[in-house]
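User: Structure please.
Assistant: Input sequence and predicted structure:
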Amino acid sequence: MRAYFLGRLLREKILLVVFVLIGAAIWLSGVSERVGSQVRSFRATSTDLDVQNRWLQQRERIEREAELAIEHLDPSKTFDSVRLQSELNALARTAGLSNYDVSDSRTARTSQFAVHSVQFTARNADIAKLIQFYRTLAQRAPYLGLEQFALASNRSNPTQLTASWRVTSVEIAR
């Protein structure tokens, strides 16, 4: 290979060196992208593991606080998935909402309790009725809680709003 290179004219040598350098630059750019991706992935994983480790270090405190909170809950006031949906229907009627929808319940269970969540959406309602619904819902805390809220105005009538809540309830496992 060396003899072939040395036997070439100067302009051919320069051209071969340029081609080799371009090839090396392309290869190095690909390597640098893969290395950067691996470094970012390593940092993200390290951060996730650090957060998980902090939660695990607080496990006893969290379990103790959960047990204390459960002791103060009245099991007769907790809501199962069906009772959650019917309670939201009753609250909506009490607040004067007529165009609303309650989605099917999703349940997450642990050894001590079950958490039920539904999506409640009220369409074309005025702000006073939405506030009244929210206030009556807030009075049922800690048995009912809000996880998420979104509010949008109606384009054709800005005084009418569409509100969407993710409402959760806790049921003590018996």
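The chain is about 55% helix and 25% strand.
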